[in-house]
Design brief:
Rossmann fold, 19% strand, 143 residues, globular, 5 strands, alpha/beta, single chain, 54% helix
């Protein structure tokens, strides 16, 4: 079983291709998107995605706008913002919008994988709590 199911979103094709190879070798299942709009479509098609690695600076829908839409439509997904153009403001915006973390490009691959594993564990924990609450609700009605 993979460490996590990840959507990698970045408009730079060579970066996405290189990261996909590196992350796949380290036991992550990767789905890719090259824009914020494409990321939202991929999330509708791939329900198993647990973590989104999202570039901040992209043409069209940027990472912050995509993050806002992801939080609205997929509130349990964890999002790691990744950028080579970080400012304190963009980091604060991302965290206010509910990003799990914010990393600078180029980032250490082991650090990124560690963050992805943490984010996937958090998503799974939230899902388990929801299942437990539903089970209590169902068993409470039966009793």
């Amino acid at each position: 079983m993979a460490i996590a199911n990840v959507l990698l979103v970045d408009d730079e094709v060579p970066f996405v291709e290189a990261m996909t190879r590196r992350l796949t070798k380290r036991n992550l299942d990767i789905v890719v998107a090259y824009s914020g709009e494409e990321a939202l479509k991929q999330l509708e098609e791939h329900e198993r995605i647990e973590v989104v690695i999202l570039d901040v600076k992209m043409p069209g829908m940027d990472g912050i706008e995509a993050l806002t839409e992801i939080r609205k439509n997929h509130p349990l997904l964890e999002v790691i913002m990744l950028t080579g153009h970080a400012t304190v403001e963009s980091a604060i915006d991302g965290m206010k919008q509910g990003a799990f973390d914010y990393l600078m490009k180029p980032c250490d691959i082991d650090h990124l994988i560690s963050k992805v594993a943490e984010a996937a564990a958090r998503k799974r924990q939230h899902e388990n709590k929801i299942v437990e609450a539903r089970m209590k609700e169902i068993t409470g009605r039966i009793a």
